[in-house]
Amino acid sequence: MNRKEHLLKRYADSVMARPFAWLLFYLLITLCAGYFGRPVIKTDIADLLPEHAPAVQALNEAKQRRGGAGEFYTIAVRSPDPVANAKFMKDLAQEMEQWPETRSVQFEQDQSFFREHALLFLPVSDLLNIKQNIQRLIREELAEKNPLYVDLNKEERDARDAENPEWRDPSTWVDPQTFAELGLSKEEVQALFPFNHDSEQGEDADADASGQNRAQLPEEYQDFRLSPDGTVGVVMASVSISSTDVDAASGLYDRGAALIASLDPTSYHPSMDAEVVGAFRDFLEVRTLMNDANRATFISLSVLILILLLLFRSPRIVAVVTVPLITGIVWSLFLITQIFHELNTLTAFIFAMLVGMGVDYSIHIYQRAEDEFHSGETWNTAIFLALTRAGRALLTATATTVAALGVMALSNFDGFREFGIACAIGVLTCLAATGAVLPVMIGVSEKIYALKRNPSRGTLRFTDEEQEPRKTFTVHRLIRIVAVVTVAGVVLGSVLIPQVQFEYNFRNLSGPGTGATIRYSSAMGGNRSSAPAVILGQSEAQMREVHEYLRQEMREGDDRIKGFVTIATFLPEDQEARMEVIDDIYEILDRRAVRNMKGEAGQLVETMLRLAETDTYTQDDLPEWLLEDITEADGSVGAMGLLYADVEWWNALKVRDFQDKYGTLSLPNGDEVPLASNGFILDNVVRYVQGDAGRLGLMALIAVSLILLIDLRSVRASLLCIVTLLSGFLLSIAGLVIFDVKLGLYNVIVIPTVMGIGIDGAVHIYHRFEEEGRTNIWRVIRSTGFAVFASSATTIAGFLGLLFVDHQGVQTIGQLAIIGITANLIVCVTLLPGLLTLYRPLDAPDTQDAAAV
Questions:
Q1: Contact call for residues 259 and 82 (beta carbons, < 8 A)
Q2: Do residues 520 and 225 make contact, with C-beta atoms less than 8 angstroms apart?
Q3: Rg of the chain taking only CA atoms, in angstroms
Q4: How many angstroms separate the CA atoms of 818 and 797, rounded?
Q5: Is 423:405 a contact under the CB 8 Å cutoff?
Q6: In 3-state terms, what secondary structure has residue 380?
Q7: Where are the domains of the chain?
Q8: What are the pLDDT digits (tens) for 649-708?
């Protein structure tokens, strides 16, 4: 007996002598581990990417240049009454200003600067159109009112007018694309530019029954952050905490919800509602994921206990094998959280998976110990023999699983790397916990209710009839027939490989019901959104080049660009040229005959005179809020801009297409300007997942093959197991297509795990085949095959809980794992025995060792 065996023997004697003392010891350790191992879950998908990912680098640069200022805490309000909305927003803002975390509150934006300088925002070409239309208006009005009026250039003007639509057509004044470039909505355009009212449209049929709309708001509410129709408004507070701080975000969210309730929105309008929206709502998904993880673990554990009861029909055995499992999971939780501190959405669910993966150790060791006990050994010796003799098979099975998981550490995708390392730690910890706690549970169970010895269960025996050559031959033939049926399924899987699809729609991989119910983007203003891409230029001159580049892209018909904001948007360089045309317009209008016009034309002249009474301005004249979003941490303005895109950000293919075009802006002068967007993270994640999936799968296969060669010491034997594994993979493909399960961000991660688990059954069956010999294949199937079935069933139980979570992406992990494990089980108990009968036919010499190659 070597030193290690001596220590195991002493440990077995100690736990059987003082099991309750050891149980208390492990209980205290487990309670401490559970207390200090409470995980924090990150939901930001960017956390799944390495720091060198292009999208992550761009976002980090954007955060650094913008100063990493506090985020916006946003509350949205909705009702059909704009005045009621504005009053509620004002009261809400006053309360939010009192919060200690609040830096500033925004609920209105002074638009007076725009109203005073509206014409200066228009390019010269549009101003010339305005000038021409005004001249046409005056000419028509004066000719109609004054029969003595004679136009000396009538023929020339008539020919020119014939080429253009009537001046009452709004599109003849300013190119609609110009308004899109300025980021103005239709309602904002109509408020700033009187010529953009279409008199033929009549009254708005959708106007509120109360007759209220934004245009009818009292002057004091005109500049509030309201949607064009006034039905939705937003109050934004810049706060000193981060939305990724789950505890702080949760507290602030609850405070906002309590504030809304205390103000009672229905007291402002019977149908008014309000809610916290934006980034500070994301913690709700963390709460959902935590609930999902706990629910999945509970369901998996419950199903596992039920399966154990059905298989072993003994509550005593169930208690003995599940307590070490729970202990191992808690210890794993502690170790993993100490290493990673925060868990991503993929890693958070490994504890449910460990339920099925970790219980195998308890089952195998306990079964071996009980067999030794029924064979006549004392429990002390039975435990010692179980820990030593069952060790090789368990270590090989663990090695293959850990190897498959370990290759994930080589992934370029941080989500894979963290999951692989964490899951490998969990598997090894569960093995260690089983070796330590299972003997204690046997000792405790013996003290409470001693197991009676049953010698007939000590050794599995078969009748001599089962050794008859004719019957053995029949069994071999039947096994081969069943194997052929399995081969048909494997062939089907190989044919269906092209039909396996990748899930690019992230709406099908998200959590439920944590999003806001109020659509508030329209209240952000114009063609903009609450999450624009940041244009990371290096100078004001370069940003003006970017402005022209994007302007040209929009005019060439790329409708993916909703709008953009640069320094050139608010501070055009050619103000003097624009003022020349504006001065001409003023001179044309500033005549008595023109000022005296009545009706529609008179109203238009009056408003245009007011707009033309403007002058050039400098950056210092711009309102502070206007440049806030493009101001850098050092206070400089001009080298950074915003791009508002109309892209299905939940569709990875659409995002990829947009990023390929605009992820880096290639300017005509050769400059390249990057964009930073949270939306680009999605495409980067998919690229990394797809790039790593095939590579890691191949590396896992190589790692498993090397372990098999070391363990089996035979190339042919290793190939048999690998062929079984690959056949299980192809059969899984057929299952994925038949059950319409797509590969995606979440479930791809489980493929190496399934490979590590799937090879275990082949290894156990081959080892037993070598032990029993070629004539006892049915014995192998009845004994080890049943063990493989039990092991697969308990492993499936671990993944079964994932089917009942709310997060759709996590559900796909359970779906793929169950299909893969089931396919591997079918192949192990059907195809592998058939291959073994060919590998060692009946007329071959009956040796106990495979011929090594």
A1: no
A2: no
A3: 37
A4: 9
A5: yes
A6: helix
A7: 3-43+285-448+466-507+683-839, 47-67+81-109+223-281, 120-202+576-610
A8: 888 889 999 999 999 999 999 999 999 887 888 788 888 888 888 888 888 888 888 888
Q: Is 142:593 a contact under the CB 8 Å cutoff?
A: yes
The reported pLDDT for the residue numbered 104 is 80
DSSP bridge partners of 74 = 236, 277
Look up tokens 């089907």; give the residue.
492
* CA 768/CA 390 separation, integer angstroms: 13
pLDDT class of 216 with cuts at 50, 70, 90: low
> How much is the pLDDT for 847?
45
Within 10 A of 297 (CB to CB), how many other CB atoms are there? Answer: 22
Q: What is the pLDDT of residues 71-118, one digit of tens each?
A: 678 899 999 999 999 999 999 999 999 998 887 888 887 778 888 888
Which alpha helices (DSSP H) does 313-413 contain, by range?
Answer: 315-340, 350-374, 379-389, 391-406
Using CA atoms, how far apart are residues 616 and 614, in angstroms rounded to an integer?
Answer: 7
Three-state DSSP class for 232?
Answer: strand
Task: Decide which of 1.20.970.10, 2.30.30.30, 3.30.230.10, 1.20.1640.10 is the CATH code for 3-43+285-448+466-507+683-839.
Answer: 1.20.1640.10
191-195, 391-395, 561-565 — which one is most confidently predicted on average?
Answer: 561-565
Mean per-residue pLDDT over the chain, rounded: 80
- 528: its two tokens: 């903009």
- What pTM did the predictor assign? 0.74
228 or 535: which leads in pLDDT: 535
Instruction: Inform me whether the pLDDT recorded for 601 exceeds 60.
Output: yes
Residue type, 546: V
Q: Which residue has the tokens 């057509």?
A: 169
- Residue 199 confidence (pLDDT): 44
DSSP 207: -
Angle between helices 751-772 and 350-374 (to 10 degrees): 10
| Contacts of 334 by beta carbon, 8 Å cutoff, 6+ apart | 33, 34, 36, 37
Give the H or E element holding residue 541: helix 540-555
For the cut 70, the answer to whether the pLDDT of residue 321 exceeds it is yes
How far is C-alpha 238 from the chain's CA centre? 26
Q: Look at residues 295, 280, 348, 427 and name the one whose alpha carbon lies nearest to residue 38.
A: 348
pLDDT at 371 over 90: no
* SS3 of residue 174 by DSSP: coil
66 band by pLDDT with thresholds 50, 70 and 90: confident
Tell me the C-alpha distance between 451 and 446, whole Å: 6
Provide the residue type at 547 as one letter. H
Evaluated on CA atoms 282, 284, 290, 292, the torsion sign reads negative
Q: What is the rounded distance in angstroms from the CA atom of residue 786 to the CA atom of residue 791?
A: 8
pLDDT of residue 266: 95
3-state secondary structure of 69: coil
- pLDDT for the residue 819: 93
| Pairing between β-strand 664-666 and β-strand 640-645 as defined by DSSP bridges | unpaired
Instruction: State the DSSP code for 71.
Output: P
Distance CA 848, CA 843 (A): 15
Question: 539 and 638 in contact (C-beta within 8 Å)?
Answer: yes
What percentage of the chain's residues is helix, strand, coil (to nearest 5)?
70, 5, 25
Q: Is the pLDDT of residue 24 over 50?
A: yes
Helices (H), 449-539: 469-496
